[in-house]
């Protein structure tokens, strides 16, 4: 932890109150499904699709009964829907067979589920179980590198760097604080530097100060 990192999270927490996922879900299982569906897809798009699904199908058993082809039809407005339908079906089947239909509260067991990578597992642990995990998506990767908070060449490198610099008191909320800042302020193509509350700590060479 450094004085700069402490100040960054202090400033972000002032303007981002009760940071949480933009995904809409009903349970830990539907959270898991939504996070799997959100890969290379916006949360808004996922929510638009799942709002018609979850009132009818919201348990692992439901998705196992549906089968992969029917899941494909339900989510065909989402990018990579065939691969995602396969993952949702197979992870649902595994949850029923090996986990008593419960989403495991354990990184290794989550990571072992079909279609679940480090990012997905960490999002579910943080958002669903309240654990102090950090999931590095494109927004967090960008902000961490631009600001110089936790530079790295890949998501795993940035994740490990963040664990070293994020103050303990902000660890649970750090994921969403950085993500939301990247989504709405430190945007990829047009970063809104004029509205940025951490501009004075930022090392981005193309930042606009006025």
Question: What would your notes on this structure say?
Answer:
The radius of gyration is 18 Å and the shape is elongated. The mean pLDDT is 94. Helix 2 runs antiparallel to helix 7 (118-129), helix 4 packs antiparallel against helix 5 and helix 8 crosses helix 10 (171-184). The chain is 55% helix and 0% strand. The longest helix has 18 residues, at 81-98. With 210 residues, the protein is mainly α. The chain has helices spanning 3-15, 28-37, 43-50, 60-74, 81-98, 107-111, 118-129, 138-147, 155-165, 171-184. The protein contains ten helices and no strands. It has two domains: 3-19 and 133-201, Helix-hairpin-Helix base-excision DNA repair enzymes (C-terminal) (Endonuclease Iii, domain 2); 28-129, Hypothetical protein, domain 2 (Endonuclease III, domain 1).
What's the topology here?
Layout: H1 3-15, H2 28-37, H3 43-50, H4 60-74, H5 81-98, H6 107-111, H7 118-129, H8 138-147, H9 155-165, H10 171-184
Helix pairs in contact: 2-7, 4-5, 8-10
Keywords:
210 residues, Endonuclease Iii, domain 2, Endonuclease III, domain 1, 2 domains, mainly alpha
Main sheet record: none
CATH C-level label of the largest domain: Mainly Alpha
Over the alpha carbons, how many angstroms does the gyration radius reach?
Answer: 18 Å
Number of strands: 0
Overall CATH architecture of the largest domain: Orthogonal Bundle
Mean pLDDT: 94
- Proportion of residues in extended strands: under 5%
Taking pLDDT < 50 over at least 5 consecutive residues as the criterion, the unreliable ranges are: none
Q: Number of domains in the coordinates?
A: 2
Counted by DSSP, the helix tally is 10
Name the shape in a single word: elongated
Q: Kindly, what is the distance between the CA atoms of the first and last residues, rounded to a whole number of angstroms?
A: 29 Å
CATH topology of the largest domain: Endonuclease III, domain 1
Structural class: mainly alpha
How would you spell out the order of helices and strands?
HHHHHHHHHH
Find the CATH superfamily of the largest domain.
Hypothetical protein, domain 2
Q: Considering DSSP H and I runs of 4 or more, what fraction of the residues is helical?
A: 55-70%
């Amino acid at each position: 932890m450094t004085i700069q990192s402490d100040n960054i999270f202090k400033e972000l927490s002032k303007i981002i109150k009760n940071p949480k996922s933009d995904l809409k879900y009903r349970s830990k299982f539907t959270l898991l499904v939504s996070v799997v569906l959100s890969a290379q897809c916006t949360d808004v798009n996922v929510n638009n699709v799942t709002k018609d699904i979850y009132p009818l199908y919201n348990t692992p058993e439901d998705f196992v009964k549906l089968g992969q082809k029917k899941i494909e039809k339900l989510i065909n407005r989402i990018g990579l829907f065939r691969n995602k339908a396969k993952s949702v079906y197979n992870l649902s089947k595994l949850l029923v067979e090996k986990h008593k239909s419960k989403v495991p509260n354990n990184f290794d067991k989550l990571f072992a589920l079909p279609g679940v990578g480090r990012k997905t597992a960490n999002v579910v642990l943080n958002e669903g179980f309240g654990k102090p995990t950090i999931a590095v998506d494109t927004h967090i990767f960008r902000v961490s590198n631009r600001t110089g908070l936790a530079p790295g060449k890949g998501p795993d490198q940035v994740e490990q760097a963040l664990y070293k610099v994020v103050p303990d008191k902000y660890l649970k909320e750090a994921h969403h604080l950085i993500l939301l800042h990247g989504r709405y302020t430190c945007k990829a193509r047009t970063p809104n530097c004029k509205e940025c509350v951490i501009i004075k700590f930022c090392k981005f060479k193309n930042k606009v100060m006025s």
